[in-house]
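During the second year of the project, the team shifted from modelling isolated chains to modelling whole assemblies. The rationale, set out in the original proposal, was that interfaces cannot be judged from single-chain predictions alone. As a representative example for this report, we include one of the complexes processed in the last quarter. Its constituent sequences, exactly as entered into the pipeline, are reproduced here:
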Amino acid sequence: MNDPVEHPACPAFVLVRPQMGENIGAAARAMWNFGLDRMRIVAPRDGWPNPNATAMASGAGRLLDEAQLSDDVATSVGDCSYVFATTARARDLTKPVFSPEAAMRLAAERIAAGQRVAVLFGPERAGLENEDIARANAIISVPVNPQFASLNLAQCVLLVGYEWMRATGEVTHESTEMAGTEWAETLEVEHLAHHYQDRLEQAGFFFPEHKAQSMKTNLRNMWSRMPLTRADVQMMHGVLRQMVRWKMRDD
Amino acid sequence: MNDPVEHPACPAFVLVRPQMGENIGAAARAMWNFGLDRMRIVAPRDGWPNPNATAMASGAGRLLDEAQLSDDVATSVGDCSYVFATTARARDLTKPVFSPEAAMRLAAERIAAGQRVAVLFGPERAGLENEDIARANAIISVPVNPQFASLNLAQCVLLVGYEWMRATGEVTHESTEMAGTEWAETLEVEHLAHHYQDRLEQAGFFFPEHKAQSMKTNLRNMWSRMPLTRADVQMMHGVLRQMVRWKMRDD
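Output from the structure prediction step:
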């Protein structure tokens, strides 16, 4: 059905708002050490292409040439059906947390089943924002010394890439759970989330004002955490459309 | 009996003839990320102490202050009973070869039994010489892309350190999947399902008639398949209540 080019056999590593070109190049090298060659970049601070990235990537320049550039996270991972967010700090968001090892095992299973998987890496200093994490299905937390967590971007990429290589060396079983299910792609979930947010805004759901943003983030987070199929997404759109139709009707 | 200070509960990481001070500093940071604080240095090219190393190590400077300096490998690891040598290329030497994971498990066992263990890391460009490796009991080979093996010194230290933490930590576990989450109980999900079904019935969602039952079943099935928290259930009740309020309002 799908040829290997269309269904890449590895996760996409997505650098979100990376700052220094050197770090993008170093991340490319770190990836290619473990045979990962699908890089995506969201809103790089210094534009794209970046000569500093190219200089640093020596030997892994192809990853930069082929990197998929986007303006925002939602667009970048729109075609993926499972998205991990890497994070150092604990977050308030309710979301499954995996070790790099468990995450890459899961990624390998999903990819073997024909799904597209992405891993988000935040900008050097601040890491991912809650807005970004709310779009992910799960979190990858790298175990580090609680007194000293100072992994840089390329090192974080390196550790997750290393676990990818370990996971794919060992993967012998395929997850049969819900085999053949058509999982919703991230972009479809994104549309669903927008649909709900827009209508609920109209209906006055996000109240009081000072809680509106966190209510929106919680709602957005919930959609990404749910294992939604395409059929689920259609049904949830239908539910909302019907409520709107009801509103418009006189009865 | 030796007290804990004399018998450190971690392996010594030995940098053999390191060149750039920056790399020594970066190696210290990489180590301390995983709680490793026993550094040894053999014949650093630019002498010791090295201000570039100190500048780079920020936050892990203690490791440099306490680093044990030697002129040669034999002296440096003289007090250890088991020595690993890290190497990228295959060697002619007949010697057990371990993955980083297996090596750090073995190190943890030996250290728990009161032994001193060291890991040798070669100079940036050339790696360890056969002379050095001949002094080791075993080799650690990091699995990398055979087409592109470009780990730098700090990255190699990072991966072995990471495996040390995995071997010893409480962090090796698969996933701390949403520990502490208040999952919705079945009865709460049941109430939620009823709430939606009743209101959607009222709104005319289950149409046409002959599909109504299977639509209800699909919707009911979805609620049970979702990993809903108590907070999710409350939010989804709120969503629906708000749509009903909106319907009742004149606007």
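Chain A has ten helices and seven strands. The radius of gyration of chain A is 19 Å.
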